[in-house]
C-alpha cells in the first residue's frame, strides 16, 4: 500500500485553540438559554405555548441539518465551512439578543441551529484531519472531548450569571466575541490538508429526505412531550420519520455520491459509537433539566448558585477526558474506557435518585455529579476519537456530523421521554397521596421530587444500555496505529488518511 501519510501541520496546536473555542460556543448555547428563558419570556411576552419553541427551533434546525452541514464541509472545505458557520452563528446570536418580539427570537434561534449544523461537523472533522499521530490525536481529542462534555455545564453557569447580574440578552451576545476570535484565529492558522475534500456533486434527494426525516423525528418527540405519546400528531410525525429515513437509506444505496456513504455506518465501531453516544445523550440531557429544576424550584437555589453547583462535575469531566481517556486511549481498547465510563456515570446517577426535599448537596448531589463527570469524560474522549478513526478523509465531515446528530437527536429524545415519565410519575404520586396530605404545597414538592427520581432511574437504565452497546459493538483495539478491527471502508481503505500510523 502506498504511503499517503500527510506531514504534520506545524500550526495544528494553535488551530486546536480556535476549534475548541468554537465547539465550546456551540455546546454551551444548548443550555445557556435554558436558565435565561423565564426572563426572556416575561420581557417579550412569550406565551407558555410558544415558550418551548425557543429551545425546539434551535434543536430542529441543528439536528435536522447536521448531515447536510457535514457534507457541505467536505465539499466546500472544512476551513471555509468553519469560518462561515462562525460568522453566521454570531450574526444569528446578535439578532437573538436584539429580539423585540417572539417571532424575531424564534427566527434567531432557528438561524443559530442552521449555522451550528455547518460549524459543529466542520470543527470535529478539522480535528480529525489535522491530528494524525496517535499520541497527539489522543491529547487533542481529550481536550476537545472535555470541552464538548463540559460545555453544557459552562452554559448553565454563564446563563445564571448573565440572568442574575446583567440581562437575558447577554446569553446571546456572549457568542459574538467567541465567534469573532475563533474565526480570526481560524483564518490565520488553520491549513486544511491537501486532497481531503470530497468534490462530488451534492446529493439533493438525500439532503431533502435526511433533513425532513430528522426534523420529523425530533419534532415527534417534542409533540409527545406536549400532546402525549398516542396523540395523532405524535404518531404521524414518527411515521413520517420512519418512511423518510427508510427512503433516505434506499436513495443512499443507489446514488453515486451519497450524502451519507453507508460505509460510514456499516463500520461496526463507528455504528457502536453513534448508538452509545446517542443513548448517553438521552440520559444526560434529561438529567441536566431535572437537576436544574430540583435545585432552583425545590431547594430555592439562585440561577448563579445552581450553575456553580455543576462546577465539580465539569472539573471531573475534564479530568476523566484529559487524564484518563487521553492517557489510556493508545494503550487499551476503546470499549474498556467507554463501557466502564458509562457505568461509572450510571452509578453517579443512582446516587441522584436518592434526592428528597432536604437532601444534603455535599452528601448526595456532589458525589453523584462528580462520578457522572468522571465517567462521562472517560467515555466521551475515546468515543469521539473513534467516530472518525480510520474514516476516509473525504468522509471526515459527514462522519463527524453523525456524532453531533446522534447527540442532538438523543438530547431531544431524552428531554421529551424523561420529561413525560417525570410528569406522569409526579401526577400519580400527587393523586395517590392527596387524601392523606396535610400541606398541599409540601405535597406538590414531594410529587415533583418523586417524578424527578423516577425519571433518573430510567436514565440509569438507558446509560447502562449505552455501556452494553459499547462493550458489544465496539471491537477496535487501542487507537495507536493501523485501521480499527471491523473497518467498513473496504476496498477504498487505501485512499484514506492513515489517522494513527506513521
TrEMBL record:
The record's section on PROSITE patterns has: MFS, SUGAR_TRANSPORT_1
> Region labeled Disordered — which residues?
480-502
* Compositionally biased residues, Gly residues: 480-489
User: Where do the TM regions start and end?
Assistant: 15-37, 52-69, 81-104, 110-131, 143-162, 168-190, 202-222, 228-251, 272-295, 307-324, 336-355, 361-384, 455-474
Question: Subcellular location, in the record's words?
Answer: Cell membrane
InterPro entries assigned: EmrB-like, MFS, MFS_dom, MFS_trans_sf, Sugar_transporter_CS
Q: What keywords would UniProt list here?
A: Antibiotic resistance, Cell membrane, Membrane, Transmembrane, Transmembrane helix, Transport
Record domain Major facilitator superfamily (MFS) profile: where = 15-479
| Keyword check for Membrane | yes
**Protein's membrane topology:** Multi-pass membrane protein
Q: Which PANTHER family match?
A: BLR6921 PROTEIN, MAJOR FACILITATOR SUPERFAMILY MULTIDRUG TRANSPORTER MFSC
Q: What is this protein called?
A: MFS transporter
Q: Which organism is it from?
A: Streptomyces nondiastaticus
